[in-house]
Amino acid sequence: MSASEVGLLVLAAVTLALIIYWKYTASVHHRRLEQLDVRIHVNGIRGKSSVTRLVAGVLREGGFITVAKTTGSAARVIGTTGEETPIRRLGAATIIEQVDIVRDHVRHGVEALVIECMAVRPQYQQYAQDYMVRSDITIITNVREDHQEEMGETLEEIADSMARTIPSNGVLITAEDRDGIRERLRRTAEERGSSTLYADASIVRDEDMRGFGHIEFKSNVAVGLAVAEYLGISRDKAITGMWKTVPDVGVVRLKTYDVLGKKITWVPMFAANDRESVILALKQLQTTHAESSSVIGILNNRQDRGRRAELFGAMVPNDLSGYLDKVVTMGAYEDAVTSMMTAGGFPRERILNLGDTVRPSLDQMLEAIAGLVEGDHGVLIGMVNIHTEQAEMLIHYFSECDGDDGVDELAASREPHRAPLAMLRLRAAQHAIASAAPRSRNVA
């Protein structure tokens, strides 16, 4: 036998061994998935991480022993008690991570898995659904213009890409509010034998939103309620479970500070820098936190983000004037942005320049901002960009005000009041037994 023939035999043997190993690991993975009563795959352009957390909270409070995995601003595994564990990666994130999560965390007794979709390219999304998650419920939060280089240039193409994660003979839940796009998703679901549930944000009451200590969106909460309805979990339990949920690291938290005798709620919304996200956030903020308050928006413009400065200069008079009482400019392009706002009809007396044309000290900024607040309470909203001299001074100031009270998400996930209802009852029973034990011994 020649050396080349030996080499071919070795190659064939290695290939066969790899095929056998792949089939074995796939079989083990699929058996783990099949032990679950509920498998939920969360896809969409905006809100995937928040929805993953909210839905897992709904399931835990509804009595399902649930594991969740979110990518988000910081990748986390959320265990059956709600306690979070960071995901450590040696290299770049890949969708194979989903298999590892199932292997390491779907143990005997786990009943539900909620997992955020990691895939972007359409073929990877389909592979993730058909082989890695095999969900019976797929959530598509919404369809927005993003990742066009992988998913397509139009909303229809992006919707078709994400529709590859819709299950066969399952259910699609979506909060997509464009009738045409939602109908497109529904048709794909129907072709796969799946039904469609619309998570309508209008069913979410303002009082449902007041239990969150951060900006949450009614559309996300509506998805949690739709899951609850489908699985027979009561509305009250669903809302309670969502309130208990620790939010993603990247959410906008709301904290109120005393600034020169004024109560100012600081809303660092710098990461929301597209039109649709900003309008949604301001609308939600208005319904929950801005009543009887002066609302001050900061347009914080970086020198290297001229197009974004132009976008927001046009948005203030056209889209945001109903939400903002005053506007403060910081960073670059102050004269140009101010001219755009006034040309669009936003009154000059409602604009204050505190950026590179003024270069105020921190004390001067705080005094000026407090002076804009009519009454006792104001809401100060940072927008557009983070990194300018003035914005960084403000961020540092409010961070210093927090001191040791800053949020540690991992520690927050272990707080007893966030535990699911079943665990709280178990702990209460254990406490009662422990308390009764000494008395029993004394009687004896």
TrEMBL record:
Domain Mur ligase central, chain residue ranges per copy: 44-193
Keywords: Membrane, Transmembrane, Transmembrane helix
InterPro entries assigned: Capsule_biosynth_CapB, Mur-like_cat_sf, Mur_ligase_cen, MurCDEF_pg_biosynth
UniProt keyword Membrane, yes or no: yes
Pfam assignment, any one: Mur_ligase_M
Residues passing through the membrane, by range: 6-24
Record SUPFAM superfamilies: MurD-like peptide ligases, catalytic domain (SSF53623)
Highest taxon, organism lineage: Bacteria
PANTHER family (alphabetical): PGA SYNTHASE CAPB, UDP-N-ACETYLMURAMATE--L-ALANINE LIGASE-RELATED
Record-given protein name: Poly-gamma-glutamate synthase PgsB
